[in-house]
Design a protein that fits this description.
mainly beta, nine-stranded mixed β-sheet
């Protein structure tokens, strides 16, 4: 990977990652201190990452014309999907967990600042925005500095000004929970059902594969067998080998069949 528009004192880019030549990555005032981009990621056309400390995990995508900026660290987990024309602000610090989706034209803000405080403006806030695992902002969402608990979800066009509770679905401006009307984003699925479904996926992808094994207990992992990638449905982790078959299977699972993070 070679990109003349990346300026950082330390940069780590994983295997099979594509960064389009028009993307620009740098710090607030010159070189970034540290940039980490995982394996099998995609950074699209005209993406701007202007942040001194930025990281994003494996199999993540930042689509074209998205802007990430801020003085404080911005850390994003594995399997992220960030749609076109998004803004992710990290002036107050931003943490986004694993398996999160931020739909096109959404704005994630960790600060509220513009009005003249000398003149008496009351609105001046910089604080961390914390987004948990499996959170989904469907699209055209505007998010204030809040905490979004795991598996929470905001419908298209939502304006989120308050914290989002675990597995609740929100809609409107200002957004309110509508889970009492439409249910939750995630339903409980038994371990047996997950195990059966993953084996069905494996059979659909490649019924003759010998290098992928579905398990439900980490005790089933043979740590000495480096030729097999184990996918554990009990905690949604896998043993990362970066084999061709593992990468192909992960891409087959993403974005909607199943999301696994490296153990």
């Amino acid at each position: 990977m070679e990109n003349k528009n990346i300026f950082a004192d330390e940069i780590i880019v994983g295997r099979n990652t594509i960064i389009e030549s028009s993307a620009k990555i740098r710090g607030i005032n010159g070189n970034a201190k540290r940039i980490v981009i995982g394996d099998n990621c995609y950074i699209g056309e005209n993406v701007q990452i202007i942040c001194d400390d930025f990281s994003i995990g494996d199999y993540s995508k930042i689509q074209h014309d998205t802007n990430v900026h801020g003085y404080l660290p911005c850390h994003i987990g594995h399997n992220a999907w960030i749609g076109q024309y998004c803004i992710i602000d990290s002036i107050g610090g931003t943490t986004i967990g694993n398996n999160c989706g931020i739909g096109a034209h959404s704005q994630i803000w960790s600060h509220i600042k513009y009005g003249d405080t000398l003149e008496g403006c009351r609105f001046l806030t910089e604080k961390p925005i914390i987004i948990g695992n499996d959170v989904w902002f469907v699209g055209h969402c505007i998010v204030s500095p809040i905490v979004a608990q795991d598996k929470s979800m905001a419908m298209v066009g939502s304006v989120i000004t308050k914290d989002m509770a675990f597995n609740e679905i929100y809609a409107g401006s200002p957004a309110k929970s509508i889970s009492d009307k439409i249910g939750f984003q995630f339903l409980e699925v038994s371990l047996e059902t997950k195990f059966k479904k993953m084996n069905e996926y494996l059979k659909e992808w490649n019924p003759n594969s010998k290098s992928i094994k579905i398990i439900s207990d980490e005790k089933e992992i043979d740590i000495d067998n480096k030729l097999v990638s184990y996918f554990n449905v009990s905690d949604r982790t896998y043993t990362k080998r970066l084999s061709e078959e593992e990468i192909s299977f992960m891409k087959f699972l993403l974005p909607a069949r199943g999301k696994f993070t490296p153990k």
